[in-house]
Design a protein that fits this description.
Layout lengths: L3 E6 L16 E2 L2 E2 H10 L5 E6 L5 H6 L4 E5 L6 H8 L9 E5 L7 H8 L5 E8 L8 E4 L5 E5 L6 H4 L3 E9 L1 H10 L14 H7 L3 E5 L13 H21 L3 E2 L5 E9 L4 E2 L3 E9 L4 E2 L4 E7 L4 E2 L4 E7 L4 E2 L4 E2 L3 E3 L4 E9 L2 E2 L4 E9 L1 E3 L4 E2 L4 E3 L9 E3 L4 E2 L4 E3 L2 E3 L4 E2 L4 E2 L8 E2 L21
Parallel strand pairs: 1-4, 1-6, 4-5, 7-11, 12-14, 13-15, 14-16, 15-17, 16-18, 17-19, 18-20, 19-21, 19-22, 20-23, 21-23, 22-24, 23-25, 24-26, 25-27, 26-29, 27-30, 28-31, 29-32, 30-33, 31-34, 33-35
Antiparallel strand pairs: 2-3, 6-10, 7-10, 8-9
Bound molecules: uridine-diphosphate-N-acetylglucosamine and calcium ion.
Uridine-diphosphate-N-acetylglucosamine binds next to β1, α3 and β10.
């Protein structure tokens, strides 16, 4: 049965010590709130309503995706008041699931279990914690039935000893919701409208109160400080690593990989320590990623080796290539199969044909390189005249000596050889040797200058 989802996200998050609204802080490369929305979407809800407030329009601006309803709560008078703001946007025939924008690890499976079944009931997601401090406590009677949720600030000594806590996530019956929210009062320690007071209203109306637990307790961790954000990030990354290992990816150390987006690996992929993957990265069968690489929005072909300390951004690397160590592959780069890009080589907006190599200290920008080309050490495409960018074309089977400058726009035709140190400003003919003459001069009897004052 489809539910309404309301995500409460209007709170300030004072303890973050940040100007950014709390729910926009990033977890694995995406805002906290985006993780909650993703979990909610898996339920295929009737609608998703986000209650925002603190930080102004930044929240809807950052997440203004289709299919979300944003409702402003100003001022923030408590969780009960927050849900009330969403009420006019909900389908009253359906139950309403309340989520928190700052509880980002909540798993869809846990939510599905909470929403399972039918009939009119109030279902609360609770957890047993060793350290329940800061949470509302679940009060039960002798028959283990829930009789109240008591906020810590309102709790007595004995109630504070209860280890079962309110995660804040709950499912409320659609027909009762409006009536209950209208009856909440703010007569409590915090002068807030507590959503948790619906427990008393359910008892009064003889609506069944049930609880369920998350699969793992870390799912319900809230983010209130940078410390908690870092903790939640580590848990999230550890979970991602477990999934990669289960899928057969060989991680040198599951504690030392960061995936900020989606990483899709073929069979027998090996990833060494301290690699960061951002956006969407696809790695083909038998590829190897060396230590300390940063790879963003890229496709890496089968059996390719990315050697340590390489950075690849918005690029497509073919099969059986060797890239790095210390290579920088920038946006718009396409490497065909069997390409070698070596240390301190930067490639930008260029295509490199099969079997071509640039092994040492080169800049290749806005260039089309054919097949079986060898670019010598220190070679630079001079693609920028200070105003415009120009293209360089290097056809198949070209051999470029060391320290060559190719001043674009320029074409080097197939099979040409360019001698070391040449500055090429005109097109180079096919099959010939081209070099620029620089005479080697010997000045006989020349003396080095001496330090002044010395003889
Ligand atoms: C709430 C629960 C508590 C539970 C805890 C779990 C109530 C009264 N208490 O307490 O039982 O153990 O969460 O973390 O519900 N929010 C708004 N508008 C507001 C107030 C809050 O949108 O006016 C949002 C916050 O942004 C946050 C969530 O609601 O996402 C919870 O608010 P918070 O102030 O953290 O509630 P707690 O006092 O921790
Ligand atoms: Ca809280």
């Amino acid at each position: 049965m489809a539910v309404n989802v309301v995500i409460l996200a209007a709170g300030q998050g004072k303890r973050m010590q940040s100007a950014l609204p709390k729910v926009l802080h990033s977890l694995a490369g995406a805002p906290l709130l985006a993780h909650v929305i993703a979990a909610a979407r898996e339920l295929k809800p009737a609608r998703i309503c986000v209650v925002y407030g603190h930080g102004g329009e930044q929240v809807p601006q950052a997440l203004g995706a289709a299919g979300l309803t944003f409702v402003k709560q100003q001022p923030q008078l408590g969780t009960g008041d927050a849900l009330k703001q969403a009420l006019p946007h909900l389908d009253a025939r359906k139950d309403t699931l309340v989520l928190y924008g700052d509880v980002p690890l909540i798993a869809a499976a846990t939510l599905k279990a909470l929403c399972a079944g039918s009939g009119e009931r109030l279902r609360i997601l609770t957890a047993e914690l060793d350290d329940p401090r800061g949470y509302g406590r679940i009060v039960r009677n002798a028959k283990r039935a829930i009789t109240a949720i008591v906020e810590e600030k309102d709790a007595g000594e004995k109630q504070r000893g209860i280890r079962e806590i309110n995660t804040g996530i709950m499912l409320l019956p659609g027909k009762r919701l409006g009536g209950w929210l209208g009856q909440l009062s703010n007569r409590n320690a915090q002068r807030e409208y507590y959503l948790t007071d619906v427990v008393a209203l359910a008892l009064k109306d003889r609506v069944k109160i049930e609880s369920s637990a998350p699969r793992d307790n870390w799912e319900i961790l809230g983010v209130n400080s940078m410390q908690q954000l870092a903790q939640v990030e580590r848990i999230h990354q550890a979970q991602t690593a477990v999934r990669l290992l289960e899928a057969g990816v060989a991680l040198a150390d599951p504690m030392r990989i960061d995936v900020r987006g989606s990483l899709i690996c073929g069979r027998d992929v090996r990833i060494d320590v301290n690699c960061v993957f951002e956006g969407t990265v696809e790695i083909g069968d038998n590829a190897v990623i060396g230590a300390n690489c940063v790879i963003r929005n890229a496709k890496i072909g089968a059996a390719t080796r990315i050697e340590p300390f390489s950075m690849i951004d918005d690029a497509k690397i073919g099969k059986n290539c060797r890239v790095g160590p210390y290579a920088r592959i920038r946006p718009g780069t396409r490497l065909a199969a069997d390409v070698h890009i070596g240390n301190f080589v930067e490639v930008k907006a260029s295509s490199v044909g099969a079997g071509s190599k640039a092994n040492h200290l080169a800049y290749v920008g806005d260039t089309s390189i054919g097949r079986n080309v060898n670019v010598g050490a220190g070679t630079i495409t001079c693609n920028y005249d200070g105003v415009n960018k120009h293209r360089t074309v290097i056809e198949d089977d070209v051999l470029i000596g060391s320290d060559v400058q190719l001043v674009a726009p320029v074409t080097v035709h197939a099979g040409a050889t360019i001698g070391a140190g040449a500055t090429i400003t005109k097109d180079v003919p096919a099959g010939e040797l081209t070099y620029t003459e620089m005479k080697q001069v010997v000045k006989r009897g020349w003396k080095r200058p001496l330090k002044i004052g010395k003889r």
